[in-house]
Amino acid sequence: MNFGKRGLQKKINGLESDSAKIGRWAGVTSIRAVLILVIAAAILTVCFIIGAYRGVIAGTPSISDVNIMPLGYATFIYDADGYELQKLNTAEGNRVSVSIEEMPANMQHAIVAIEDSRFYQHNGVDPVGMVRALAVAVSSGFNRTEGASTITQQLLKNNVFTSWTEESGFERIVRKLQEQRLATQLEAALRAEGMDPKSVILENYLNTVNFGAGAYGVQTASRTYFGKDCTDLTLSECAVLAAIPQNPTQFNPFIYPEENRNRQQTVLEYMLDQEYISEEDYNTALNDDVYSRISQIQESESEISPYSYFVDELISQVENDLIEKKGYTPVQAFNAVYSGGLSIYSTQDSQIQYIMEDEFKNEGNFPEVTTYALDWALSVEHADGELQHYSREMLQLHFRSQDPEFDLLFNSEEEAQSYVDQYKEDILLPDDEIIAERFTAAEQPQAAMAVIDPKNGHVLGIVGGRGEKTASLTLNRATDTYRQPGSTFKILSTYGPALELGVINLSTKVLDEPYTYKDGTPVNNADRQFHGKVSIREAIINSLNVIAVKTISQITPAAGFKFLLRLGFKNLIDDEDWDVRQPLALGGVTNGVSTLELAAAYAAIANKGVYNEPVFYTKVVNMDGEVLLENEPESRQVFHESTAFLLTSSMMDVITAGTGQDFRLTNMSLAGKTGTTNSYVDLVFAGYTPYYAAAIWAGVDISIELPEEYRNYHKKLWCNIMNRIHSGLPNKGFEVPSTVKSAHICKDTGLLAGIGCTPVLEYFDESQLPKEICTAHIPTPTPKPTPKPTKTPSPTPTKTATPTPTKTATPTPTATVTATPTATPTPTPTPTPTPTPTPTPTPTPTPTATPVPTEEPTEEPDPDEPSEEPVPEENAG
């Protein structure tokens, strides 16, 4: 280096040169430009970050719209006495709400200690916790992480930002920022409203979180793992539950008790460090053998029992009412029922429901020989893309080509499956793909029954099939299956309407004779005989088909049909080519009726003629205690009280002397009517006591003739159930209304009994009391003998007056049913009696408590005969 005078001068000259100056200026300028660019970039970045942050914050939901209450609360159903009957929930909707006061302090402290130790100090966001979490992550080489989210943030994540499980990385950052913003706003808003924000947040958090094993919320978790309410949890149990939320699968005490045990100890250590518990509490909790209790609970847990037939129908009614009355969509109605936290107050009498289920499970009440009816369907996509559906009817036709008697009844499920497999082998091609298949083989014969409180239409019990119920929301034969009602319809479509219209009374005489429908088809009685003139009471007792068809012909099928609609039958077809026809008298309807509908219709007679629509619940209350639905049954007067009693009186005789004798109960009055359809396909009985109305159906699901050994089991079911239901109840009989009067009538003519008549006690509406006295049986006076003369030379014949027999009036029934049906019913007016010096009839007695005529009909049915003639095939619908 040259540091001499000449060298330095040279350097000075170089620095002062123009080129040097330009170079220095360029360098400085470049540095300045770089610095400006860096600063500008930094400013832009900061502005961008601030702008982005403000944009994210601006997108934060308004605190006024935020709902921190958890979604998916379980719905509870209660019986008529207020006892819990059923819990309804979806997989994530089984929470049971409890207040913070019901949560033990140890439970609150345990969750705070492990999840958010500074919960009571921060304002919703914990910067200290964030720094600590970062330090733990860095110090462990990011092998360990510690949550920085507060309980407030976690609550918002679960109940407000519910889609967090599907977030991308950027979306997670956005949600975290909005979560923090809302957390501070939430606590401030709660405080401003005068509430304790920590209590509100902790209550909702513990009602929200997932505790594993499908248990959401602390109350459900407590019931799941320990079989008790959370109020009764011990310290060790609280620590077990607090250990779960961080990873509900990994720390599930059922599946991984050791993993849970390790974290439980951590929870207890944190509680001790944070001075929530003492050393003694800590040691006691550690020494508690809590996991053996959890194991016992797990072993005792059985599979969830399927809903009862009652609950099945109840759910259907509530969902339908939410849609029709509240405007819910089907999805909304479903969510409300299964995860809306509703309280549904049902009408079920649990004792009655239990008795019914118990008897339907008892195989001793069913025929010894059991068969299985096939219900099967198949959907197939062929190689060309065509979708084709196959049914059990198609399967039946396939095998009937080989066996004309093939009827879809099998000796076992395995046999049914073998026929299905054979059919599939016959119809499927190698490239066909099965899209869906349904297969069930239900035990046969089947039965269904419904019991109703006549006073209010409350369904007290219902069973829709025999045996153990194996699934929820299955076929309910009492509500979903529509079958022919047989002669139970005679009361509802014919005799009730005819009595109500004043066309007949129970003493009206009608000629039982050969008779045909309009189309010429003969009407036959069950015994294939005709019985001459019989009263309406006798026709009901013996279930005479001819009299029923004659009577509906007189009032017209249209009139009877209108009464059926008012009695709640919804599947009838208002058409003369279908249901508005003469066979309606015998139960010949196209679509059939349900067992529940039949029970409700007979309940109307039991309820003095007032029909109540059958209901399964009284009210539905939401989580806020507000009544969401109030179920007042629709009521209407169908028959006068007197008509209802006259039907009751005649149907009591059905039980004591007619076709329903096998349905008699022990020490309890019963009125009812039998029904047997064509070829014994359906066996039906509907009736009522002073307490309950009920109907029972028996048959085979696929509507085939019942063999002789299958034709009586429904009688045994009925008697066993109804006798148990009425056990201990006093027999108070049926009340006679003030509008009903009794009178002794002539058994042969139906007029007031006179001299020589066989008197029978009968009941009448007071407006229809007969006034004419029968004179048909007055004996002819015997002529006096002619006296012989004592002293007369020549006998002179003495003129003796020949007694003239009294003219006997021809008895006329109050209303005569003609042999030929007419379009318009024309009742024959009751003749006005002409005053004659005839004997006074026997005084009318006061009716007794049990309104059964003291004189039983002399013509009793043969109990071995079927209850009535089936409806002809072409008229049975």
Q: Can you walk through the features of this model?
A:
With 877 residues, the protein is of the alpha+beta class. 37% of the residues lie in helices and 13% in strands. Strands 2-1-3-15-16 form a five-stranded mixed β-sheet. The longest helix is centred in the first third of the chain and has 41 residues. It is elongated, with a radius of gyration of 43 Å. It starts with a helix and ends in a 112-residue tail after the last strand. The C terminus is likely disordered.
Question: Key terms for this structure?
Answer:
elongated; five-stranded mixed beta sheet; five-stranded antiparallel beta sheet; 877 residues; alpha+beta
